[in-house]
């Protein structure tokens, strides 16, 4: 039985062997299924206006926003997210402490801090807790989208603490 799917000759023949063809189909199907399922994002931000803006600019993602640590904890425990966006200072706790809690359960899930506090000490604390990026407010929405895409779609990006 010939190893080609159509009548071709020479060096192109190896591209059309059934094995290569099945690998190609599998890759296409995987890419399509990844595109069709939106990535889940949990945002923990006390400022409701900021949440509305983030929800608007992140239309390609399944975006959930909560406004306190207490609202976030049950979601972190019961659901799986592809990315977390945390504010540093929340009304009932610290974003840094919440980041540590997330890292206990989700060691590789990307975490982005967005905060008006741009002091080096605060940034260092967030990064030591396991944050992958820290954006200082105000920032352009495009900067957040670029960061999200980089963390979710680039396999060469080093993510959080390794388990």
Structure in a nutshell:
This protein is α/β, with parallel strands linked by helices and 163 residues long. It has helices at 18-36, 48-57, 69-78, 95-105, 120-129, 141-153; strands at 40-44, 62-66, 83-86, 89-90, 93-94, 111-115, 133-136. β1, α2 (48-57) and β2 form a beta-alpha-beta unit.
CATH topology of the largest domain: Rossmann fold
Largest sheet: 5 strands, parallel
Whole-number total of structural domains: 2
The shape, in one word, is globular
- Please compute the radius of gyration using only Cα atoms: 21 Å
Judging by the overall fold, what is the CATH architecture of the largest domain? Answer: 3-Layer(aba) Sandwich
Strand segment count: 7
Q: What would your notes on this structure say?
A:
- The protein has 163 residues and is of the alpha/beta class.
- It has two domains: 7-37; 38-153, Rossmann fold.
- The chain contains six helices and seven strands, in the order H-E-H-E-H-E-E-E-H-E-H-E-H.
- It has helices spanning 18-36, 48-57, 69-78, 95-105, 120-129, 141-153, and strands at 40-44, 62-66, 83-86, 89-90, 93-94, 111-115, 133-136.
- The strands form two sheets. It has a five-stranded parallel sheet, with helices on both faces. A two-stranded antiparallel ribbon has the order 4-5.
- Strand 6, helix 5 and strand 7 (133-136) form a beta-alpha-beta unit.
- Helix 3 packs parallel to helix 4.
- The longest helix is centred in the N-terminal third of the chain and has 19 residues, at 18-36.
- The model is unreliable at 1-6, 12-16 and 159-163 (pLDDT under 50).
